[in-house]
Write a structure and sequence with these properties.
This protein has about 500 residues and is an alpha/beta fold. It has two domains: about 375 residues, no CATH class; about 110 residues, no CATH class. It contains 21 helices and six strands. Strands 3-2-1-4-6-5 form a six-stranded mixed β-sheet. β5 and β6 form a beta hairpin. α16 crosses α18 and α16 packs across α19.
């Protein structure tokens, strides 16, 4: 007879099957959530770079603010599966699915297979991670590398084998070649390792982890000239801010509800506060109940939340200008549901079942609501307070015998993915510099000046609502009508001779 204990034994043996199912479910969710989302500026820039020849791709990333690994991977993926939206977004979905599996593996190594299985719903229903699981940017790749490196780090501290530390060093280097902000992860790891080594009173010469970091730096040396050039010469978007107390609340509400703090209502506030209070109470009791070695790894998961936030806060205080944007925590976002799930599962295991059950039920409800909010909000740009809607603009524009003029370089890159089959131009008074996010447009023949007369009979002008247009249409054209979607406007003109 198949008993309950036999079921648990089977569960322990095949935890990876459940983790794989959860990963596939995560991929499916990202695909569903990403359907119909309009490609916006950052994604358009990623696609532009991925469609460049290899030499130009690396040359353009060298004058931007981000390293090249993701763009190279996106190019390979696009050349295999095509550059359609579904194909491009699915890359991030696959990477997030891999991060979910790695997260389960990390928890299994720290605790048990049973607990690794129990935390899967929290990983699958992580709204902030899901949002960037369909974004055509490097965040999902950086998240996968960060979670995978943390898993390898735990294994390395247990075995202390050189091969594990070597794998960790490679992952650190790959992280830095994906997103420089992964340095917050590596610094957090380093602090945890340092405290662990000092508390164990181990001689410095036995610190293999230090050799691993030195190895990662050595591996990164070939790219360092480009890194320092980007560090001192890159063009920042100018939308960053300091990591204040309000921003911390914003991060918390976005992680659980995918709702900015200024939109969180009364009942939602009560739910978020209750989750936080119960979580802290349960976590404190769990730390007192687990064994010493396991406690050290639970602390590692705790510092994986505190460390990156401390990094952003310190850089806000000492840097030349604040750079924090909520989406910059996307590459560490999975550590929040990881720790939450582990706290609940360990609490249940150690007899704290009432608190664990209440927190689990409330947390799943809040996270599911967050996923629902992601579905409704889409890729709304919370920094610019705009909903990308280029797909809607393209659906009404008839490009036959028509020229489309974007009001500025930003609007061009924001729309080029959908208007690439049109005679698309952009206005800029001066030549575009070959640096920053506009670097692909340097010396572009698509640049036009105000008053330019085109051969086409119809002229479309894409601009932003309530903003003074930069491009002035030639008097050879007469205005016909305007169509507005959110903050984007499509003005239609025809040549006077075509009346």
């Amino acid at each position: 007879m198949y008993t309950y204990h036999a079921f648990l034994k089977t569960l322990d043996s095949y935890w990876w099957v459940w983790a794989l199912i959860a990963s596939v479910f995560t991929l499916g969710l990202t695909v569903i959530l990403g359907l119909g989302q309009s490609v916006w500026f950052d994604e358009g820039y990623s696609i532009l770079l991925a469609q460049q020849p290899w030499g130009e791709l690396f040359a353009l990333t060298a004058v931007d603010a981000h390293p090249p690994l993701y763009y190279a991977l996106l190019k390979i993926w696009g050349e295999i599966f095509g550059f359609g939206e579904l194909a491009l977004r699915s890359l991030s979905g696959v990477l997030l699915a891999g991060a979910v599996f790695a997260g389960a593996g990390l928890v299994r190594t720290i605790t048990s297979a049973r607990i690794a299985t129990a935390i899967l719903p929290f990983l699958v229903l992580a709204p902030f991670a899901l949002r960037y699981g369909y974004e055509i940017r490097m965040y999902a790749l950086a998240l996968l590398i960060g979670v995978l490196a943390t898993w390898v780090l735990v294994v390395a501290t247990r075995t202390n084998r050189w091969r594990h530390w070597a794998i960790y060093a490679v992952l650190v280097t790959l992280g830095m070649l994906t997103l420089y902000l992964t340095v917050a992860v590596w610094l957090t790891h380093a602090v945890w390792l340092l405290v662990r080594s000092l508390r164990a009173k181990k001689p410095v010469k036995t610190w293999r982890w230090l050799v691993a970091y030195i190895g990662a730096v050595v591996l990164f040396i070939p790219y360092m000239p480009t890194f320092f050039s980007q560090l001192f010469n890159s063009v920042l978007p100018g939308i960053g801010s300091a990591l204040t107390l309000t921003k911390l609340v914003d991060v918390y509400s976005m992680q659980f509800l995918f709702t900015p703090e200024y939109q969180v209502g009364g009942w939602a506030s009560v739910a978020l506060l209750t989750v936080l209070v119960l979580w802290i109470i349960l976590l404190v009791r769990v730390l007192g109940a687990v064994q010493k070695e396991q406690r050290a790894y639970v602390w590692l998961m705790i510092v994986m939340l505190v460390g990156p936030m401390s990094f952003f806060m310190l850089t806000s205080l000492v840097g030349p200008e604040p750079i924090f944007i909520v989406r910059y925590v996307a590459h560490v976002s999975l550590f929040i549901p990881l720790l939450l799930g582990v706290s609940i599962a360990l609490g249940w295991h150690h007899g704290l079942r009432k608190t664990s059950l209440i927190l689990a039920t409330l947390s799943i409800g809040v996270l599911a609501t967050g996923v629902f909010n992601v579905a409704n909000t889409g890729n709304f740009n919370f920094e610019r307070l705009q909903q990308p809607s280029t797909t809607e603009l393209r659906s009404v524009a008839q490009c036959d015998d028509a020229t489309v003029v974007a009001d500025d370089p930003y609007t061009y890159i924001d729309t080029v993915y959908y208007f690439g089959d049109c005679d698309l131009r952009f206005f800029s008074e001066d030549s575009v510099e070959r640096k920053g996010g506009y670097a692909p447009l340097a010396n572009s023949e698509a640049r036009v000046e105000s008053g330019t007369v085109f051969e086409s009979q119809t002229l479309y002008h894409i601009r932003w609502f309530e903003a003074e247009p930069s491009f002035v249409v030639s008097g050879d054209y007469i205005f016909v009508d305007s169509i507005r979607f959110d903050k984007q406007v499509l003005d239609r003109y025809i040549r006077t001779s075509a009346e």
